[in-house]
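Appendix B, Record 12. Input sequence as logged:
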Amino acid sequence: MLTTDFVTGSPNWLDLGSVDPSAAAAFYGAVFGWEFQSAGPDAGGYGFFQKDGKTVAGVGLLMEEDASSAWMLYFQTPDAEATAKAVEQNGGRVLSTPCDVFEAGRMAKFTDPGGADFAVWQPAAVKGLEKTSEPGALHWAELHTWDPAAVFDFYQAVFGWRSQTMDMPGMTYTVLSTGEGDQQDASFGGLPGPQDDLEKSRWIPYFSVDDVYETIARVQNNGGLVLMPAADVPDVGLTSWLADPFGAPFAVIKPEPTQAV
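Logged structural output:
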């Protein structure tokens, strides 16, 4: 399961690039009870979403022209430069080269061969998210892409991920794990089967909630959209796909008790 004991290749940060960070902070505050904390006067408006005083995500203003509001998932790396080289050598693309973020750490952004954007975080003063796999925090990460097998080969080469397949209604689902530790305990995300009708290949963050239906109501009451209604996934939990008022998609899950431990 996803924890804050970060190892190479595990999700260790998450942030929202928004066309209106202030309005986005109000939306997610109403939906998840998050509070916004500025990263400081030199951070260009970047700040942190916190739950119970612990950071669960970041948020900043979109700087790219014509970009759409979206969540960006970061994976831990001990060496951002080496990861950037591995990305290029295995068919990915470097969107932003490794750079220092004050004393916090180093980051870089990439696109995988299937077209999904992702990033890496090389920790220094900031190790990563302070709360995961609890209500209001990141619980799971899912990659939707046209060619899951080829894209998994890319991430395996870059991060050393492992995979395990499981049968789900209408598809074979690939569970992703880091290269370290017990494979089941190290799982953090998944790859659904090939999806020919995708608008865009992308990572979707799943946030844990106590009540999916109540969360859906909060989303709708605060200007968000329901992209996929609540659905019960056997042995996994109740899930729903949603979007904030500016179009950034995300998902929520109330995990089965065996998945929440």
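Residues 233 and 239 are 7 Å apart (CA to CA).
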